[in-house]
Amino acid sequence: MDTAEKTDNGTHNGMYVIVNNKKLRCGYTTGSCAAAASKMAAAILLGSERKDIVEIVTPKGTVLSLKIEDIRVSDGSVTCAVRKDGGDDIDSTHGMLIYSTVCKRSDGMIVIDGGEGIGRVTRKGLDQPVGNAAINRVPRSMIREALEDVCENLLFKDGLTAIISAPEGAGISKKTFNGRLGIVDGISILGTTGIVEPMSETALIDTIKTELNMKRASGEEFVLVVPGNYGRDFSDEMEGLDGDLAVKCSNFIGDTIDHAARLGFRGFLLVGNLGKMVKLAGGIMNTHSRWADCRMEILSANSLLAGADAVTAKEIMSCISTDDALDILSEAGLMEGTMKEVMAKIAFHLNHRSGDGMRAECIVFSSKYGKLGETPGAADLLEKIKDQVR
Q: pTM higher than 0.85 for the full model?
């Protein structure tokens, strides 16, 4: 990440990342907005002059200079707002105002809570306990440090309360995963670094971890995982199984296995399309094409183990899609044998990654040919998952 020119929103946060050879502008999180708004509101409340720009330091040590909007001074409190900027990673909260209303306390405590448009936690396993405002741990720490900094500089020894709000939050939350996660009536105040990095994998992995945390906290011991909608839809077709209950892992299969094992799940069932799952047979645990492909190399090599001749293996190597490769294997009478080899290798790599404490099984399908194969314990684990949700 490097610094560059002044950005167009009045701040001096010209940070960029290079993704796939493209220069993309970074933004800042709702947590940074809440901390900056709280800092200025507290400063005005305690007698400092109003300023258009306030500086905060992110958890990684980056100094952000954020523009303050909509300052309101009333009897006993001050309200300030900062506009969320997602940079080139625009999401549903981009452009919305995050407010903080700060008032004095007499007990010396710093209290942080959520107001209008900030969600409330209703399920165990999230970053905050049930009943708390959905202001995550790192943003809470940023807000607290900002308020403490003002108190120290202005020699104020009593306490402060900061109420974070987002008037548009209730409506915008409907475009997020909050409802699925058990956060109601508003958005979450998020961020682990204070900075929004475009196309960040961290945010996706954090979402996956949150879903796993919730399932484990609710007592589930076996988890159904799918890379995306294809896996979910295929799971829906299995009798007694609801694909919507699956955790979507996208391309991050290895990270998902790691976290599930850390949480103490006893079983991990992955259901996915051959296009992604075949990479597991080569030990590839991030299935995004920019990290690795090798689909045809893996299918071609395993077809040889299943008895294919060199001509067939060469034809597979020239295929564009796995369904094309399956057509060739089907015509040669080698699909079942090849998939048996592939599934054995998938089983090895999954369980090597998961370790001794958690069974990892897999079911592989094709949109054209249906179910192609499963690891030895997949059927038994599938029944345990069905029993768990009955």
A: no
